[in-house]
Specification:
It is a single chain. With 415 residues, the protein is an alpha+beta fold. It is 41% helix and 20% strand. The chain contains twelve helices and 14 strands. A six-stranded antiparallel sheet has the order 10-11-9-12-14-13. The radius of gyration is 24 Å and the shape is globular. 37% of the residues are buried.
Length: 415
């Protein structure tokens, strides 16, 4: 996907030569992979089909370069090629192994709205198409092969559901077909107590609740797309996070209710590249409609809010750092005084019944008594305690908290 987006941007900037060069390199890579998986005889049959797809991509890039503009709709069309091509290769490889598989274009089943590059599934229409298209294949003993990440509007226009959306696609399909379980195969052993790249003694979580997993995914745990567990929650289908490089590992099981745990927290998640936006209106004292005006401004600029903290005369909000913030701040300045600071990080500690457990905040912030805490949020959720620190101290913060709260682990919950 990264290569496809790079060539699309090159074409959009008028660099047709580089875009086509990247396309040819990607084509060669797919030919090599298909050749290794299929063998000479099958690859000879498959070669022309793959070639037609790359001819289409080549023509699309030439068109983008000629126009000199890359729209979200065209971005989706280009980035979808990765899933289309890989699913074709996997289906052919299954056939080569004697597996009775059937290729299904996900765009025929996953129906979304028209918000290109981050489309939302329309579940009623999607479930109906899954029952009509995929269920008969399962009933006949075939193995359907579908690409993740992609869908289409009701009008048949290609869309994508955001980076990392293949996990989400799996959950959508599994829930739509009433699967017994949904397996997400990754390159890690499951969900961990924190990012192993930040803390070398991070441990695997054996079992975790839907709510806890969703909270961790939203606040930076990269194992799952934040929306992955939502379809599973609706149908109460367990989700397993497993490692394709270590298939014997039990991974992490995500269920409606996890067993009680004697540790306060299940995990620590971190979200970097955060900007705090402070909106202060002392004259209005949060008059009726003031908060609505703030959030309408965020909506107009399509900027998502992570953490909110309010006082009598001001509101602080965190957002992912991006190019839209200056324009958003200018819009908010019509309502109140505005300032924003970047290079912050959100730290989120997740565990069950935190609201009902006395002394939790004291233990956390007692451990960090020498750290400048910029924002704190607790109480809105029963399962998380969230705060914001400077990005350059977040590594030390996580290591200290992990040592304090995960030195003695409940063996029923952690591995």
């Amino acid at each position: 996907t990264d290569q496809l987006l790079t060539m699309a941007r090159a074409a959009g900037n008028g660099d047709r030569k580089n875009a086509l060069k990247l396309c040819r390199a990607l084509q060669e890579r797919h030919y090599n992979t298909a050749g290794e998986l299929l063998g000479t005889a099958l690859f000879t049959q498959f070669h022309s089909d793959l070639g037609l797809d790359f001819e289409t991509l080549d023509e699309l890039l030439r068109g983008i370069a000629a126009v000199g503009e890359l729209t979200p709709r065209t971005t989706d069309y280009v980035s979808a090629f990765g899933e289309v091509l890989s699913s074709k290769i996997v289906a052919a490889a299954f056939s080569a192994l004697g597996i009775d598989s059937a290729l299904v274009d996900s765009r025929e089943c996953i129906v979304t709205d028209t918000a290109h590059t981050r489309a939302a599934p329309l579940f009623e229409e999607t479930n109906e198409r899954l029952r009509k298209t995929v269920q008969p294949l399962l009933d006949s003993g075939k193995v359907p092969v579908m690409g993740g990440f992609i869908g289409s509007t009701k009008a048949g226009i290609t869309t994508t559901i955001g980076r990392g959306g293949s996990d989400y696609s799996a959950a959508i399909v599994g829930a739509g077909l009433g699967a017994e379980k949904i397996e997400i195969w990754t390159d890690v052993d499951g969900m961990m107590t924190t990012d192993p790249n930040m803390c070398s003694d991070a441990r695997r979580i054996k079992v975790i609740s839907f709510d806890e997993a969703a909270e961790l995914a939203y606040f930076g745990a990269k194992v799952l797309h934040p929306a992955t567990v939502l379809p599973a929650v609706q149908k109460n289908i367990p989700v397993y996070v497993l490692n394709s490089r270590n298939p014997s590992c039990e991974g992490t099981r995500i269920t409606a209710r996890a067993p009680r745990c004697r540790n306060f927290f299940k995990a620590i998640a971190v979200k970097k590249r955060i900007t705090i936006v402070d909106v202060a209106a002392p004259r209005m004292q949060l008059a009726h409609g003031f908060l609505r005006g703030i959030f309408e401004a965020f909506d107009r600029h399509r900027v998502a809010v992570d953490v909110v903290s309010t006082s009598e005369v001001s509101v602080s909000l965190t957002v992912e750092s991006n190019d839209s913030i200056p324009a958003l701040a200018a819009d908010l300045a019509k309502l109140a005084d505005v300032k924003y600071e970047g290079r912050k990080a959100i730290v989120c500690l997740v565990g069950e019944n935190l609201r009902e457990t006395p002394g939790i905040a004291a233990r956390v912030f007692g451990e960090l008594s020498d750290v400048k805490i910029r924002m704190i949020s607790q109480g809105a959720s029963e399962i998380n305690l969230t705060f914001v620190v400077e990005e350059d101290v977040v590594l030390d913060v996580v290591r200290r908290l992990h040592k304090t709260f995960f030195s003695d682990l409940d063996v029923e919950v952690f591995a």
